[in-house]
């Protein structure tokens, strides 16, 4: 969305929000600091911080972008300024959830100057059939759309961990006027993708396009409507659950919508005047704006989240509405869209109380909630208006002994209004459902016929947590009332730790925090700290990247009990080596010059009483020992006497695949192991070298630049005939400036011009015979480079990354 409406509508609000976060000032990104994460630590308990409404750990949040589901995980992307509390320097933030309720914020998805174009509001899909041809591995691509005055495509081949930009940011659609906010859906009847994008060419409206592959788009038609301003959404819904009677819904940022028909080319509305799906304040300074529905849902539901602009706190601005299921239902006034909280909210219920068949009068003694208090909760109530004489009835929320309350929710029986929203009784009855959070209030009437999203600064002091049900001017029959206290949805996932271990992690000693690239643990002098997952194992392969930041040791822990009084731990010990130990026994030590500040890859293969330990992708175990103390237990991490950084914890997976012997050693940059292979992140040139050497050989591997500088590109490469510190070497790379290059220090030996795209995997092969060096690209049978150089006759094999983050996999050498 455009920032201009925010400044026009609520300039005073933005002025009040322009408070600096305790992070760096606003700036464009670079490879060295990508992604910009994490934020100052938070327990998500600040005043007005929603306990079950998503908000960013810090910074500004606005529109929901590209909500989608993939392989058991829901992904929420959102407009985000991580550098302050007001709109500025738009990024795409990212959070994930296993259930649409418990959200964990992840590193930035899209960042200025790392990804080109205006990174404003947009949408995205999971390309499960690889119609785009962008897939390079086993994961289905996430393809997202952003940009202003034209549409730019970004995509991820690692389930949303990292994103690249298609064709260097070339706009795949351009259109007249001011335009933004593309939304993409799959249209099954025509087997095509359909995109709608807002523009003001000739007035408000959307252009519709179709594509077979998400990359090449054909104009279909335009739907013009004066009410339709920015952030469109477009989706089908069955009327009353009847799939044979399906209508298409066209919405805008303010939650206005019309129903109609879509034949694959043209949208034909049934109404000329829109309805509103939510009756909160529907502007960029209000309480409900820019809602989108999730794509690729596993169960066919249509679930929406929207931006709640006016939720603010000490370190964040903006939150998201609780996910609501959208349906079309028939009412006396016609077919209307309903919004209702998803059933997964039940997972947060910690206690409950219920009452039935009461008569509520003006006498406080008839209030079943008398003496009841709660902080975050939901209320479900049904009233029978037959014979009712009360003019109004409802709830006081966060009430105090003096009769005041932070918010009153009333139904006006005479005017038939619920908190000012028109709502007629159904069969003489009225239903209310309230979601009460610390800074958010969502009101639903008659099973979602009325939806009203609001922000309220609730006072969570114990004396202000009362709940009251009362009537004015007479009586009304309460059919049923349920109160569910709701627990926190936070502190469930791992924001910066990449792992396939399931369940929650718990700290046993030490201080543990999220830092860029992993989990950091700190302990006092001569103290141990453990961070344990909920997953246990007996026989397995367990591996991860560990680094002593300062102090003595960082480690992988396994077969541990819940309080870590029993465990095996495999550490890198500064100045000593690699040690396998358990309480009461040092099982084995491999002497090695472990250096503070360097990342080491540890792997342990546990089979019964036998433990084999491998260092830095070595093929021969450095420790092969036995111990019978513990047969099974939890996986985790350990830090001793200092600070350690731990990342990429995987059980029973294949990471970096190579037939080269190790251990490997690095010259510069950060080298870690991901599920996709060996990852290097370097601002200049960085090398990771095997201990194996060769003279004449065939050397090949798969190389991929994840992201690089937009101006000068980035490169991923195979290095060979290198010396131990890589001051001498040959390197064959793919460079996103558009070349395959063979070079050595002091000389570019040869180049081959061809488009090289970040995010694409390229297969490089080098055939070295004496001074003749041939380079082959993507299994081609003719070398793209055939050159001679006599400088180096023999040396080590390795990997190289230049000014980028890159992943290299399937590295093998042969005769």
TrEMBL record:
Keyword Transport in annotation: no
InterPro entries per UniProt: AL/BT2_dom, ConA-like_dom_sf, Glyco_hydro_32, Glyco_hydro_32_C, Glyco_hydro_32_N, Glyco_hydro_beta-prop_sf
Record's keyword terms, sorted: Glycosidase, Hydrolase, Signal
One cellular component (GO) term of this entry: cytoplasm
Residues of the signal peptide: 1-28
Domain Glycosyl hydrolase family 32 N-terminal positions: 53-340
Residue ranges of every copy of the 3-keto-alpha-glucoside-1,2-lyase/3-keto-2-hydroxy-glucal hydratase domain listed in the record: 661-813
Domain of life assignment: Bacteria
GO MF term set: sucrose alpha-glucosidase activity
Glycosyl hydrolase family 32 C-terminal domain segment(s): 344-483
PANTHER family linked: EXOINULINASE INUD (AFU_ORTHOLOGUE AFUA_5G00480) (PTHR42800:SF1)
Family: Belongs to the glycosyl hydrolase 32 family.
Protein name per Swiss-Prot or TrEMBL: Glycosyl hydrolase family 32
Species of provenance: Cystobacter fuscus
